[in-house]
Amino acid sequence: MQDHRAYAETIDDRRHLFCVSPGTYTWKDSFASEERSSLTYYRRRLFGLALVEILGICALAFLLYYLQVSGAASLADMWATDRVVAYALLLIIPLLVFVPLNLILKLGPTWAIGTASWSSLGYILIFATPSTGHQSASVFTYMAFLTLLFIALSSAFAVPIGAMGKWLFPPSPMAWLRALRQGALISLFVVALLAMSPLGLLNWLNVFLLFTIIALTEFLFLARS
Q1: Measured between alpha carbons, how far is 101 from 17 in angstroms, rounded to an integer?
Q2: Burial tier of 40 (Cβ tally within 10 Å: 0-12, 13-18, 19+)
Q3: Hey, how many other C-beta atoms are within 10 angstroms of the C-beta on 36?
Q4: Dihedral angle at the C-alpha atoms of 173, 178, 181, 183, nearest 10 degrees?
Q5: In this predicted model, what pLDDT tens digit does every residue of 87-146 receive, in sequence order?
Q6: Torsions phi, psi of 133, nearest 5?
Q7: How far is CA 79 from each of CA 85, 90, 130, 196, rounded to the nearest angstrom?
Q8: Contact between residue 159 and residue 101 where contact means Cβ atoms under 8 Å apart
Q9: How far apart are the first and last CA of the chain?
Q10: What is this structure's pTM?
C-alpha cells in the first residue's frame, strides 16, 4: 500500500514533465521549452541577418553619395585617401548584401563569387577609363567586361532562384549548385543579348531561339537530376 502511494506521489511530482497517456510517456514541457528556445534563436538570427542586409543597402547609398561629394572617381592617384575609402566600400557592400542571404538560403560559395565579381564590376564602372587603343583591344575589353558581368549577374540571380527553389524542389545539399546553374543560364541570356546588340543581331527571332536553347538546356539538367 505504501509503495502504491509513493508511486502516485511520484507521478504527481513529475506531472509538469510528463504527459501521461495510455501506454505512452512524452517530455511535453521539456520539448515545448526547447521548441520555444529554438524559435527565439531563429528569430534573433533572422533579425540580425536582416539588420546586416539593411546596413549593406545603406552602405550602397552612402557610396553613391560619397562619390559625388569627394570626387573620388576623377582622382588620378590610385591610392588617394578618397579612392581607398571607395575601394573599401566596394568590398564591404557586396559582403553585407550577399552573406546574410547566403546563410539563410544556404547557397554555398555564392557569397564569395558575388562579392568578388560585384566589387570588380563596381571598380570598372566607377574608376576604369574608356579604352583609346586599337579596335582589337576594344573588343577584348568589351568581352572581358561581359564575362565579368556574366559572373556578377549569375551570383545575383542565384539568390531569388535559390529562394524559389526551396518551395519548388525537395531539399538537397547541392541545391546551391542548382540555383547557381540556373542563375548562370539567365545571366547568359542577358549577356548574350548585350553582345548581339552592337553586332546588329538583336531581333525577335534570335531572342526566341536563344531563350529556347537556354530553356531546353535547363530542362535537360532537371531531367538528369
Answers
A1: 39
A2: exposed
A3: 10
A4: -110
A5: 999 999 999 999 999 988 889 999 999 999 999 999 999 998 765 554 455 778 888 899
A6: -85, -155
A7: 10, 15, 20, 37
A8: yes
A9: 66
A10: 0.76
